[in-house]
Amino acid sequence: MTYMCRLTAKSIGVAIALTVGLQVPVAEQQQLEPHLTVGISRLSRSDDHTIAYDNRFAPGEGFYFEFVVHNTGNAVSEETRLRVYRAHEVKGLLRRIAAYTIGPLRPDPRPPWVTAPLPFYQEVTLGQNLSSSGFYWYVACVHRTERFFFSCTADDLEEDLVRIQVGLPDLVARFKESSITVRSGATFTTELIIANEGVGRIRPARVTKWHDDTPIREVQLLRSVQIESSPDGAHRVFENYTATRPRTWELRKCVYTDQAEVTDRNNCATMRITVTGRNGTTTFTDDPIQPGTTTIRAVHFRELRERIAALRAQAGLPAIRWTDPMLTPGVTPVRAVHIVELRAALDAVYDAKRRRRPHYTDRALASATTVIKADHLTELRAATVALE
Question: In terms of C-beta density within 10 A (0-12 exposed, 13-18 middle, 19 or more buried), how is residue 325 classed?
Fold first, then answer.
């Protein structure tokens, strides 16, 4: 058996009407309510409006927050209140410090059923100037006016807390390399790094330089130099040197400021510089030998013998048979023949290289009457280094 249904124009219209009647408007299918979020779009310094990436400030330094309240829901929000809370040292003890009225905000993006020309966000600026050092926590909360109270605690908003550190700056000076070894005649560059490991910004005024314990000169830094309390905020001072005679000495530089800082105990840096001979030989013991102060020792002669013997070998000269080949400290007496042999052995190297022989004090040394002087050893050292 076959069943057939005959539709007339009238019945089609009813069917269409029933079908359309079952559809719910889009606006009624969704739960329409606003959803307000608040965030910090900028944390800046008041004096130059630069962004404070490290959240660190000196006492009394002004800064400000820029809060943005954003409607990410699907309905127009009512008038609300933005309240800002701050805690000092104990982040759980938040106290309200400011409140702002936030006008109605449309959803973002604008749904088709919202025709009101309303903004979907609102910005609020909060200025701060803290004189007490320590850590501060800030958080902003949105309150609806129809609610009489809304609690904003650190436990609920742990991830939304912004920490600010207020304290003094701290200049720290250090060399990129604490010690270097260079050959005589070489040019090298020192790099002094001046960093701020405290809080806020600091302006170093001058750098003083010492060679060993002797102050050399003071360098005034540019007035525009300001060092931020961040890893990328260091200032670098470069200086070129030429290594002269072989020796070991210390270069010391200290940086000073007219501002208050945590401590000035780390404002100085020291670099140890070892200058070797041209062939890489190291410095002499007790360099320089001070007349009337330095005691003549066996090591002074032993070092000269070794280095002069090396120069003779390079020049193709035979080895020397030294008087008293084993110099024993406290046992072997200093004799004029030791100086005479060193001079003769070194003069032969100068002759082989066709260079003018060095000048010596007390050219003729008498074994019984000549007193060994500091100049005798110093001249031999200089003449040896000149060939290395």
Answer: exposed
Structure tokens at 230: 């961040």
Q: Which residues contact 313 (CB under 8 A, 6 or more apart)?
A: 319
- Residue where the block lists tokens 């020291």: 270
DSSP-derived 3-state class of residue 385: helix
pTM: 0.46
Tell me: pLDDT of 153 over 60: no
Q: Which residues pair with 14 in a beta bridge?
A: none
Start-to-end CA distance of the chain, whole Å, equals: 123
Instruction: For 228-239, write each residue's pLDDT tens digit.
Output: 776 667 888 888
State the Cα–Cα distance between residues 215 and 213, nearest whole angstrom: 7
In whole angstroms, what is the distance from residue 105 CA to residue 74 CA? 11
Residues 6+ apart with CB under 8 A from 194: 171, 172, 173, 204, 207, 227, 234, 235, 236, 237, 255
**pLDDT tens, position by position, 117-142:** 788 888 889 999 888 888 898 888 88
pLDDT digits (tens, 9 = 90+) for 283-302: 788 878 888 888 888 889 99
Neighbours of 127 (CB within 10 A): 10
Query: Percent helix, strand, coil in the chain (nearest 5)?
Result: 20, 35, 45
